Amino acid sequence: MPPSKKINIAIFDMTDCEGCEIRFIDLKEELNALLENINIVNWRLATDIEDPGPYDISFVEGTPLSHEEVKLLKSVRRRSKTLVALGACAHLGGVQAGIINYPSYSLKTSSKTWTEKANDRILRELANDRVSSALPKDQVSPAPLSHFVPVDIEVPGCPVDTNFLRRTVTSLIAGKHPAVRNFTVCMDCKERENDCVMLNGTLCLGPVTLGGCSAICVTEGRKCFGCYGPIKDANFDALYNTASRMGIKRREVNDALNLFMSFKRRI
Amino acid sequence: MKASKHLITKIEGHGSIAISLDKKKARLMVKEGERFFEKLLVGRNFEDAPFIVSRICGVCPTAHTIVSIKALENALGVTPPKKAIILRKIALSAQIVQSHALHLFFLVLPDLLKTHSSLDIAVSDPEIFKVGLELKDLGDDLLDTICGRSIHPLTPVVGGFTKEPDMDDVLAIAARIPKLIKKAGEAFRIINSANLPGNARSANYLALSEKRKGIAGQSKNSNLIAFDTALGMGERNSGSKQRTIVSNVNGLDGGGYPLYDGDIMDNYGVTFPQSEYGINLPEKKLPYSKAKTSTYLKKSFMVGALPRLLISHGSLNPAAVKLFRQSTDLQKLEFDAYLNDQAQAIEIAHYLEEIQILLKEYIAAGNGKIWKKFTVDRSANRSEVRTASGPAKSSASKDAGAQSRSGAMTGAAAIEAPRGLLFNRYELDHSGRIISADIMTPTVQNLKNLEKDVEHLLRAYPGKKETQMQRDIEILIRAYDPCLTCSVH
């Protein structure tokens, strides 16, 4: 990459906690160094300038939960050479996707979008000193970005790991696709020399979850919650069987999987 | 007849403001998608709640986690060890420093330095940008060490912490505080010297107060009375720290500076307990927004840095007092939402010093436990099947307290999140599964007041050009530090 040509980067967020985009600021001084090679041309959290693109790389975090957001996502896809799904919400649907597995959940979706027309109506009413009209029902069932548009790269994690993000950004700047490491969190635990929490009777999703996170949750005295999503060919039956031998009911395993793997387990 | 709409950038979350210049009306339309957090929690084990509610907000996840834990402990009747409470207060203070730094340096400063983006400041004023990074870093590093991770904490659990932080690491990080307190002062001066339109008006506001003090004017009435912290500091009994009452213009004395304990106090000095927030601050759905809002005495109100400062400025730590004295605007003790930025800058200094004090307390507490063992009878949802290889469940679960058996348990709690009062309430069944959950975030409480402030601004400057007015309004909204992500949950 000749130094004269900077890479255009855009950062977009759908509905989510915004923790993953804050990870960009967590890159700290490196962000300054990166700014020599990249131009962050669109980032609602940092600037009020909207660059219509096209972008070399778009990072999109969050889950589209309204038709307006789906529309934005599709338009971002059209304007981006590379689209990166940033974090568990974009990659897996996030914790909010848990709602789709509730028996009582019936999504009151409607095809109505928050259109410019609806906006105009509210403005008109405001001008007449009267706001009464209800918001159009505009709810989309939570799902990963890849459910709506083709995604080139997925950065897993809730939140994304700063090191993982750094590696992804620098690889992309160098014109490479960061490799996916297909091993479970159990590998990370071995590396960190953690005691297996399953031996203490705690249900841990490590055996079915994609690793690469340095097993941070187990290391900090918890268990794996599965935020990197299921590993390819994950053996869920074995997890249920092991849990059953430990005296843990199927419902508890379902609850655990329903944190981050709701969408993947449903289809 | 004219109305216009603008997308607000540089705030957490998505929203637009609709303004009618003729009618002097404003409506903030929050457009975040609904994630149904309160619904997501139903049916789950209580242990999952702090982990899940943390995901409401990536800017203040520690606050969400800790208030959830506190409410669950109230429901279960668990009293965490003293050391755990000190650690939580350190974590909350670090969270406030980090969140305020993010807000002031990355979202507010571009307005004051008249650029479009904090990324421009990184290039044009790298020194100032660096101060912001260093402050945010300090908060992050403390949270990384104490909570395992700065975003979505891991070690805080019901009963305390899963892991004791490495005190050498913590103290090494804390050694950076004295220098940063000075730098926080520089940030305050930039904000203090900014030429913003005044927008003072009478409004209600609320914050935690560490001790009930009664109606205004009854207690101290002269300036500069030094008093011992032990007074009104709840469980804090070291009593070594001197606090100064700077001014008692409106006679309020909120006790210790708000953070973790105490009743909710309003701007008249009237208090109500944390658990009664539902009655006192009823929530209402707004027709034009995805967020709800709440009212106090049927009126809009504000929570956050400015209310905390107006109510408890008498309990600020020394370096923060110095900054407070430099602010002629704040000294008037009038409500003007634009001053929330200044209040945040003062709070950065205050909570930095608070972290130092709390660390001393933590060390003085010695080698005590940081997690209290407790049991909930899970017989209703645990399989009876136990194989020889499977580890036996804690037999202690058999003698769970009578309270746990007697049906539903309810608990509510409040803390001061960076943006203001944050409430959680849970109802659990006998086995610890969540029957219902209620979460009320600071921005939900502020939304209506924010609109009122914008309308006041529209009335106060009738002749102003529309473009200038839009700019002033955007700065005002940003001063509130609204987290629309939090407001729809």
- Contiguous low-pLDDT stretches of chain A (5 residues minimum) are 106-115, 131-136
Major beta-sheet overview of chain A: 5 strands, parallel
Termini Cα gap of chain B: 35 Å
Written as H for each helix and E for each strand, in order along the chain, the element string of chain A is EHHEEHEHHEHHHHHH
Give the helix level of chain B as a range of percent.
40-55%
Detail the topology: elements first, then pairings:
The complex is a heterodimer of chains A (267) and B (489).
Chain A: E1 7-13, H1 19-26, H2 29-34, E2 38-43, E3 55-61, H3 67-79, E4 80-86, H4 87-92, H5 116-127, E5 153-155, H6 162-173, H7 185-192, H8 216-219, H9 236-245, H10 250-260, H11 262-266
Chain B: E1 3-7, E2 15-20, E3 25-30, H1 37-40, H2 48-53, H3 61-76, H4 82-112, H5 118-124, H6 126-147, E4 156-157, E5 160-161, H7 167-174, H8 177-192, E6 204-209, E7 225-228, E8 242-245, E9 263-266, E10 271-272, H9 277-280, E11 283-285, E12 292-294, E13 301-302, H10 305-312, H11 318-326, H12 328-331, H13 340-364, H14 402-405, E14 409-417, E15 420-428, E16 434-440, H15 442-460, H16 466-479, H17 484-487
Keywords:
heterodimer; A: 267 residues; alpha/beta; five-stranded parallel β-sheet; 11 helices; 5 strands; globular; B: 489 residues; alpha+beta; four-stranded mixed β-sheet; three-stranded antiparallel β-sheet; 17 helices; 16 strands; 15% strand
What would you note in describing this structure?
The complex is a heterodimer of chains A (267) and B (489). Chain A is built from eleven helices and five strands; from the N terminus they run βααββαβααβαααααα. With 267 residues, chain A is α/β, with parallel strands linked by helices. A five-stranded parallel beta sheet of chain A has the order 2-1-3-4-5, sandwiched between helices. Chain B is of the alpha+beta class. The model of chain B is unreliable at 212-251 and 380-405 (pLDDT under 50). At the A-B interface, helix 1, helix 2, helix 5, helix 8 and helix 10 of A face strand 1, strand 2, strand 3, helix 1 and helix 2 of B.
